Structures are given as C-alpha cells and as structure tokens.
Amino acid sequence: MAVSAPTLSPAFPIGSRINERGVLEIGGCDALELAREFGTPAYVVAEDDLRARARRMLDAYRACAADVDLLFASKAFPCTAVLRVFAEEGLGCDVASGGELALALAAGVDPGRIYVHGNAKSVAELRAAVDAGVHCIVVDNAGEIDRLEAIVTGTQRVMIRVTPDVRGETHAAISTGQADSKFGFSMEEAPAAIARLRASDRLELVGVHYHVGSQLLSTLPFERAAAAVAQLGDFPVVDVGGGLGVAYTDEEPPSFEDYARAKVEAVERHLGPGKRIVAEPGRALVANSTVTLYTVESVKRNVSLWVGVDGGMSDNLRPMLYGARYEAHVVDRFGGTTRCHVTGKHCESGDVIVRDALLDDPRVGDVIVTPATGAYGHALANNYNGVPRPPVVFAKDGDARVVVRRETYEDLLARDV
Ligand code: LLP
Questions:
Q1: DSSP E strands: which ranges in 117-268?
Q2: Mind listing the pLDDT tens digit for each residue in 364-404?
Q3: Has 347 been annotated as catalytic?
Q4: Does domain 48-286 have CATH number 3.20.20.10?
Q5: Atom of ligand 1 nearest to the CA of 375
Q6: Quick one: which atom of ligand 1 is closest to the CA of 376?
Q7: Distance between CA atoms of residues 13 and 11, nearest Å
Q8: 29, 93, 340, 347: which one is catalytic?
Q9: Using a 6 Å cutoff on CB, does residue 221 contact ligand 1?
C-alpha cells in the first residue's frame, strides 16, 4: 500500500513524495531509477524547489521593503546551473572569490547584479571584479581600500563591511558578527574607513554591510546588529547579509516572511526608513532543494551497527565540521527501527554522515537518501581518499538531467604535470 506524502519531513524538497511503489520521488523522479541511471553518490536537485524558494524569498522582501536587491550567496551552491536558475528568477548574486566570480560570469549573471565579498581579496581578484564591471565591492579592510584606489581608474561602487559585535547563536565556525571576527571593519576602525571612502574620488561608498552568522534560528541578532551599525551614520543602502537557518532534522527556522520582516524592520527602526535593502541568503534558498543518494556497500555490527555507504566526508563535510545532523532513510523502505550509524567510506572514524539513524533493516545494495544537502554540500566537496566528486542532477516533472557530471579518475590526474 502506498505510504502517504506527509511522512516526508520538511527537510525534503517541495513536491517530494513516496510514490505508488513505495519509493521516494524527487521532482517527479523515482529515487531508485535516479540511482540506477546516474549512479551514486549523487546530489539530486528539485529544480522547482529552487525556483519556489527564490520567488518566496523575493515576495517576502518585497512585502516589507520598497527597494530590494535580493542576491543568492553563491558559496552555498557554486554551480552554474543553480546560478542560472536564480538569475532567471530575478536574483543577483554575491561572490566571495575570483573563482565564484568566474562561475557567476560563466552562468551569465549580469555583472551589474554581482556583489563581491572576501576578507583577503587578492589584487588579481579585485582587478577581475573591477574589469568585469561588478555592481559593488564590499570592502573588508583598510589595505583593500589602498588596493582598490590603485586599481580603479573610473569609479567603483563599494559598501563597507562592519562587524557589529553581535554573536549569532550558531556553531562557532559560522558565527561572524562577534568583535573578534576575521571579517569586516571593527566598530572602532569603521569611522576612519568611512571618512576615507567618502573622500575618495574613485570609490563611491553607497552602503554598509553586516552578516552576523549562518544557520540562525532566531531573528534577534538582526535587531542588535542594526542598532550597532546605526552608530556609524547614514547609508542609502543596507546589506543585511544572509544567515537564515533551515530544517535539517527537527530545527524550526523562522519563515522567510518573518525573517525578511525582522531584518527590514530592524533597519527601519535603527538606520531609518526608505533604505535600499540588499539581502544575500544562501543556505535557505538551496539546502532543502537537494538530497544525496548513496548505495550501501557494507553492513557490520560490533558495539553499534555500521552501515557503510559509497560517499561520506568527500560529499558532505558538514557533520564533521559543524556536528551537523541529517535524516537518513532507505529510499524504498521509509521508517524503520534498526538503530545504526550511516558512515562514509573514508579512512577516518569521524566520517559518519548520520549517527543513530533509524532505518528499515539496512542491507548491502540499498539506496539511502539524506535530505537537505543542497547548501554547502557540493560547495565543500573534496577528493579525500581519491574519491571522485558526485554529479549534480536536476529533477523536474519526472525528467532528470546531469548539470555537473561525476568526476572521473582522469580528472584526479588532470593537474599532474
Ligand atoms: N553573506 C556573507 C557575507 C556570508 O559570509 C555568508 C555565508 C552568506 C551571505 C550566506 O549565508 P547563509 O544564508 O548561507 O547562512 N559552510 C558553512 C556555512 C558558511 C557560511 C559562510 N558565509 C555550513 O555549511 O554551514
């Protein structure tokens, strides 16, 4: 008998369901067939989910701010096909390196919608950004002002990134707003930098930027951040960063609407009304659009039951870096009571994707799904143990297409000289 769709948690892409054969479907595609056709591990993206979340985030901001530039933080899913979808939906994009700039340009993102970040931008990266005609460079430190002054010949729009001394409640590795952060100007340093930028005839200071952290489940830090930044003066543009958390398992993040309203109202209250709002969500636009499919290669029991799959920390570093938790299921036998650790194939004990998963009698050959791997999954993928990185597959209306192919052993050798 078919299991009804509500058994799927919000961690899954919009439109996912368990089909009549009892198999998970993503973007109308049967997960077992996807695994057969494209192999595993594979990132499967529900394209309609990306579009739906982009539209909802745009609507959420437009409902509370008259002038909004919504960007996708490309670091969350640096893949031209994803960038193209967001560009089609009317989003700009932020890049944090020369490589992300190259990807955005290759995806056809209008340079006039690109904002450039980075706490250690090289001269070459700054030059590439200026030459490409990016909309705005977000200046992080005093040395960068010197570098830009030397590079820019006409005028370049800039914002100043400040560190408001507000700690987001999140993992220490992804909290950025505290005073002792490597990002941005301190509140003490910022006034001199602002004065310098205002005096420059090459750099046009249009706004202020702050980003307090990522995977935030509360909107309270935005209020404190806006209050702090207001001490620095008046700016026509306020870039409120990204940071909205998502549901990986049982997290309850604010809705897009509540999140956008909280950010915009904080700006209005402290920095004044009528500002152009720039927002740069990454994770919230892509995390839940994507699932990873794995195949079970080994099952063994000692103190615990260990279910070894064909990927791991090469395709999802987040459990190892941030203690992130994910769901796991056998794609054609959801539910189950067999407690086990879903582990990767890499040569270290920390390579556990999901600890204490409850699966239905997992066996070699089963296809396992972990939902919510769209953000910082492909982005953090690596070749540890010479494991080729997975493909990115878009699924939509029952059709699937590869947008990034699987890496090959030849790719692993491609840089040898
Ligand atoms: N803007 C700036 C300046 C950022 O540094 C970031 C993320 C974002 C926007 C987007 O933040 P989001 O909406 O995605 O929270 N690898 C980590 C996350 C690192 C976030 C870095 N900065 C993870 O997997 O959790």
A1: 136-139, 156-163, 185-186, 203-209, 237-239
A2: 999 999 999 999 999 999 999 999 999 999 999 999 999 99
A3: yes
A4: yes
A5: 24
A6: 24
A7: 7
A8: 347
A9: no
